[in-house]
């Protein structure tokens, strides 16, 4: 029942707030290990969140874990997605998302429990070759938190406002935004927690 009302009762990504303003926070995120899948949404009938099931199968959230041990891996929050044009070129978020001359490619990440940090060799290997395990180094992001459903229009507006606020205050943006969602799809929209995160120097 708590999940319907937005209670987050799983491990969340570790970070330190190094600056807080009325418009955003600057956060320093600790190193972590992620499981990720990169895909063309058309592989999942156009569903941009189609990679979720593949990652959930890997950790065993939907049944027997699809990894070599097999070991059930605890779910954490948030689930992180980023989008780019295929061929590796990142594109700015617009409303609606426009992909000129190419297809949109989505990368979805699950951050693995902190017990695997600095121990990537202990992470169970995925049976599905589309799932990649990799280490993330310490990094800084400008972050804004918001509720409701993270539609493309809402996300685009949040990203644009955050980018302008960061640049106004002298922060150097060094990459494209990430979308972080903390709740399952059945959480009632008013109780959802989402973030847009833009990497800064």
Number of domains: 1
CATH architecture: Alpha-Beta Barrel
Q: Mean of residue pLDDT?
A: 88
Structural class estimated from helices and strands: alpha+beta
Structure overview:
- The chain has 201 residues and is α+β, with helices and mostly antiparallel strands.
- It has one domain (11-199): Multidrug-efflux Transporter 1 Regulator Bmrr, Chain A.
- It is 13% helix and 30% strand.
- It contains 2 helices and 11 strands.
- It has helices spanning 51-59, 152-168; strands spanning 11-12, 15-20, 25-29, 32-39, 76-77, 79-85, 104-111, 132-136, 139-146, 178-181, 194-199.
- The strands form 2 sheets. The chain has a 9-stranded antiparallel β-sheet, covered by helices on one side.
- Strand 2 and strand 3 (25-29) form a beta hairpin.
- The longest helix has 17 residues, at 152-168.
- It is globular, with a radius of gyration of 17 Å.
- It starts with 10 loop residues before the first strand and ends with a strand.
- Mean pLDDT is 88; it is low at 88-102.
């Amino acid at each position: 029942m708590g999940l319907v009302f937005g209670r987050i009762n799983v491990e969340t990504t570790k970070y330190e707030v190094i600056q807080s303003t009325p418009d955003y926070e600057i956060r320093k995120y600790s190193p972590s290990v992620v499981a990720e899948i990169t895909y063309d949404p058309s592989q999942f009938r156009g569903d941009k969140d189609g990679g979720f099931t593949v990652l959930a199968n890997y950790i065993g959230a939907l049944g027997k874990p699809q990894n070599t041990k097999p070991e059930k891996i605890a779910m954490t929050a948030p689930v992180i997605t980023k989008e780019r044009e295929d061929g590796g070129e990142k594109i700015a978020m617009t409303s609606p998302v426009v992909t000129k001359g190419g297809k949109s490619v989505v990368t979805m990440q699950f951050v693995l429990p902190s017990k695997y940090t600095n121990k990537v060799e202990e992470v169970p290997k995925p049976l599905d070759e589309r799932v990649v395990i990799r280490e993330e180094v310490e990094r800084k992001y400008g972050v804004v938190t918001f509720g409701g459903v993270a539609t493309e229009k809402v996300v685009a507006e949040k990203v644009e406002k955050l980018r302008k606020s960061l640049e106004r205050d002298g922060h150097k943006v060094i990459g494209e935004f990430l979308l972080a969602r903390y709740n399952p799809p059945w959480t009632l929209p008013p109780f959802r927690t989402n973030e847009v995160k833009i990497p800064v120097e």
